[in-house]
Every structure is written in C-alpha cells, then in structure tokens.
Specification:
The chain has 400 residues and is of the alpha/beta class. 41% of the residues lie in helices and 14% in strands. The strands form three sheets. It has a seven-stranded mixed sheet, with helices on both faces. Strands 9-12-11 form a three-stranded antiparallel sheet. The protein has a two-stranded parallel sheet with strand order 1-10.
Length: 400
C-alpha cells in the first residue's frame, strides 16, 4: 500500500493572492456584469451601452496588411521590444502630420502592446514604494491600479463640471507635489468626454517643470472628435519634451481594440526607462500587427472621419432623448461617451439600477471611475445605430 508510506500530514495550503491583488478596488464592471446575467437569464432584452469598444470593423486595407504580413516567416519570430523601425517611423510621420512635432523614431517613439500596457508599466518604471502619483479622477482605472502595483500612493485630482472637468493644479499642496513622480492626465477625457486646450497643457508642463514631475498624457481619444474640434498634443507646448511623454493608441482611432497596438512618444530618457521594464516583461508586438499598424497610420484616413460621423449621429440621438426625458445632457466634442448627471437627484448606482430595471439599458455608474464621478452615469456610443435609437426611445419614456 504505497499510499500509506506518504506523509500523514495535510499538505500546506497553496498561497492566496498577493497583497497587491487584495488591495485592488473592486472591478468596475463586476457588479453590473452580475446584474446583466441575472436579467438576461430571466429573458430581459438588454441594450448594453456600458463598454467603450468600437462595433465598427477595422478598415479592410488594415486587415489586408495583416493577412499579407502573417504569411511572411520573418514575422513569426520574436519582434524587438521597442518596435520595428518602420513602425516607429510610421508613428513619427503620423505625429508630424497630425501635430506638427518632429520626433526621432529611434529614441522618441516606443511601441506598446496597447497603451494600457504602457501606462501600467510606466508606473513600475518610475514609482518607488511610497512615492506619490498624481492622477485625475473620475478616470481610466489603470493610473491608480498601476500605482497600487508599484506600492506607490495615489493622490487624486478631482475633475469637476464647474472647472470643465480640468484639474485645479494650484490646489495640489506643495508638500504633495514635491513627493510626486508622475502626473497622469487624459484629454479628450474618458469618462467625462471633456477636452483640454493647449493653454491647459502649458499649465501642466509648467507645473511638472517646477516640481520635477514626469507628465504622462493619455491621448487615446485625440482622433475621436466631432463638430470640427481638433485635439492638441502635449508635445506641442514649447519645452514639453523635457518632462513629458504621451500615450497613443490605435485602438479607438482605427477600431483596433483587439489588435493590441499603440505607442508612446516624447522624452527619450523617460521612454528608455519604460522600455527597460518592457524588455524584461514583454516581447513586443507581433510584427504582422505592426505591419497592419503601419498601414493604418500611413494609409487613407477618410474612414476615421467617417467613423466619427457615425459616433456623432449616435451622440445626437441619445443626447436628444435624454433632454426630452428631462436629463441635463449636452453634446460632447470628443470621445464616444455621453457623460451625464443622473436626473431627479439619483446617485450613480440608483440611476444605473433604474435604467436596467425600467429601460433595459446598461450603462456605467460614474462613481465607478472615482469619487467625483458620483451622481453621473456614462453611456457608450459603440453599439449599432438601431440599438442606440431603441435605447434612446426607452430612456425618453422613463418618468421621475
Ligand atoms: C481605451 C483606453 C486606453 C487603452 O487603450 P489600449 O487599447 O490599451 O491602447 C487608455 N486610456 C483610455 C482613457 C482609454 O479609454
């Protein structure tokens, strides 16, 4: 009976998750996902406007570039972590055409497996335990989560409607600013849809120069714009390159969220630090995807404007219905989100609950993006037109 000869002691339990995982804020969509499942199981016909993920397919010339490149054996090997020279050159060329700023593709452009990867790794590269990271809230959750993973301390900068959802940098105590390593800003902004002019970027660059802080601009939505608005880059500010990097993504611009491709631009030394983390933790973007990225950045751009027309049409349908229903909605100039105050004094959670129960519409509670998001909800416009129209009609019918 060989089993008997084994130890009689119970084997030790496997370790539980590390403290850094336990200290994470609850996943924004977990509670909504649970509710959605419950209602769908009961046969409810739900319209999901909670996730920002383009429903429009990637343009054919981009898909075809991937098809061609996938058949090339050289592309099957490890890519270089910093990106193919041709991809970085394409990114620099796009940046020059779009913002009029010259970049050295060798040192001032770094490829990313999506900008989320770059943002998370950026904090690991520059934040020691107990260092302060400044980030706007409500906001994209990764600034805070990256900081938690690095053992840093987040100091949040509230985005308030009365300040047009721009942070008040003068309200940051000097003692905090002196301890800060990084400042994360994001314009056009998710979730508020707010935009920032060059004047605000000048202020942010001056603030970071004053205190020796790295300015990290998350620029995922610079191309998702309407009504003639043109979004600036932080790097257009004179001297910005001394203290700044900017994260760009092909995800939202080219409807390529699933492809995982983006890039960071700006200060060469700062990018080298981010690159050092990347060399040790990831192995770059599949070269065939980089070839597709080159096709996206250098090819015909008319589909970008066309997609924006679609989002604008949907925005107008939804905003009109909200107003007709008594909500205080106004059309945003950028991003495919509608950020709106919950009507009739409801909290974010109450509003999301009622939209689900009475209209079968799923949206995101503003409070999930940060404290200052309380009292707001976010609708995403990345659902087909007929669904947006149906959601609009149902919302219009809701009563106080
Ligand atoms: C979508 C999004 C990103 C990340 O996009 P990637 O697909 O990882 O490039 C970054 N920041 C904001 C604000 C976003 O909404």
């Amino acid at each position: 009976m060989p089993a008997k000869t084994r130890s009689r002691k119970k084997p030790p339990a496997l370790p539980g998750p590390a403290a850094r995982l336990k200290s994470l804020p609850p996943y924004l969509f977990a509670a909504i996902d649970r509710k959605k499942k419950e209602l769908r199981a009961k046969g409810a016909d739900l319209i999901d406007l909670s996730i920002g993920d383009p429903d429009i397919p990637t343009a054919p010339h981009i898909v075809n570039a991937l098809r061609r490149a996938a058949g090339t054996p050289e592309n099957h090997r490890y890519p270089s972590y910093e990106g193919m020279p041709a991809f970085r050159a394409a990114a620099a060329g796009w940046f020059k055409r779009r913002f009029g700023v010259e970049l050295d593709p060798k040192t001032e452009v770094l490829s990313l497996i999506g900008s989320k990867e770059g943002i998370g790794h950026m904090v690991l590269a520059y934040c020691n335990p107990n260092d302060v990271v400044l980030a706007t809230e409500p906001g994209y959750p990764v600034y805070k989560i990256g900081t938690i993973f690095a053992g840093g301390k987040i100091h949040e900068l509230p985005l308030l409607e009365k300040n047009r959802f721009l942070p008040d940098l003068s309200a940051i105590p000097a003692s905090i600013a002196r301890r800060a390593k990084m400042l994360f800003i994001n314009y056009p902004n998710n979730p508020t849809g707010a935009v920032a002019g060059l004047g605000f970027f000048e202020e942010a660059v001056a603030f970071c120069r004053k205190y020796g802080i790295i300015l990290c601009h998350d620029a995922a939505y610079t191309e998702v714009v309407f009504d003639g608005y043109v979004s600036p880059s932080v790097l257009q500010v004179p001297g910005a390159k001394d203290v700044s990097i900017e994260f760009h993504s092909l995800s939202k611009t080219y409807c390529m969220t699933g492809w995982r491709i983006g890039f960071a631009v700006g200060n060469a030394d700062i990018l080298a630090g981010l690159g050092a983390i990347k060399t040790n933790l990831d192995s770059g973007i599949f070269q065939a995807v980089q070839e597709a990225g080159i096709a996206a950045l250098t090819g015909d751009q008319t589909h970008v404007a066309r997609n924006n027309m679609v989002a604008r049409r949907r925005r107008d349908i939804l905003v009109k219905a909200l107003r007709d229903g008594g909500w205080e909605a106004s059309p945003q100039q950028a991003t495919f989100y509608v950020w709106v105050r919950a009507p009739w004094g409801m909290t974010s959670a109450e509003c999301v609950e009622r939209l689900l129960a009475e209209a079968g519409v799923v949206c995101t509670p503003g409070s999930g993006f940060g404290r200052s998001g309380e009292g707001y909800v976010r609708f995403s416009l990345t659902a087909p037109d007929d669904q947006i129209s149906a959601a609009a009609a149902r919302i219009r019918g809701m009563r106080r």
